[in-house]
Amino acid sequence: MSKVAILMGSKSDEEIMQHCEKYLQHFGVDYEKRVLSAHRNPIETIEFARSAESNGFKVIIAGAGMAAHLPGIIAANTSLPVIGVPLPSSELNGVDALYSIVQMPPGIPVATVAIGKAGAINAAVLAVEILALQNEELRKKLEEFRKQGSKL
């Protein structure tokens, strides 16, 4: 089975990013979560990104607040799809993170979802959609999820 990485810049981001886990669990998708910071441990973060594919990951979800460089530094160091979740961890309530994540330079895309909980949920569902392109079982689970109103 394909594996998804759930990354967050700080342990405090887990309150929102746990919603990714809930949805990936619902679909039966294997995942691994880690706290990695583009600013506090950039070498470890880059090494993770560069080895993600060889470690069995197919999609990376990266949640970050404020300057929100985590999704971008991951995307710059892997060719795997990266989904950025802007987190509302500043006085700007995540708008700063949204702008930081969505404004990537040409050639280094980061799929960007909504700020906060809705974004974490959508990131997980988007990861499932990507994996379902090559997994019939996941595609059927996704169709059933949609028929049930796209909610758990």
UniProtKB/TrEMBL annotation:
UniProt domain PurE: residue ranges: 2-152
Catalytic activity: 5-carboxyamino-1-(5-phospho-D-ribosyl)imidazole + H(+) = 5-amino-1-(5-phospho-D-ribosyl)imidazole-4-carboxylate
Pfam (any one): AIRC
Binding residues for substrate: 10, 13, 40
Pathway listed: Purine metabolism; IMP biosynthesis via de novo pathway; 5-amino-1-(5-phospho-D-ribosyl)imidazole-4-carboxylate from 5-amino-1-(5-phospho-D-ribosyl)imidazole (N5-CAIR route): step 2/2
UniProt GO BP: 'de novo' IMP biosynthetic process
InterPro entries (alphabetical): PurE_ClassI, PurE_dom, PurE_prokaryotes
Top EC class for this record: isomerase
HAMAP family: PurE_classI (MF_01929)
Entry protein name: N5-carboxyaminoimidazole ribonucleotide mutase
Organism ancestry: Bacteria, Pseudomonadati, Candidatus Kryptoniota, Candidatus Kryptobacter
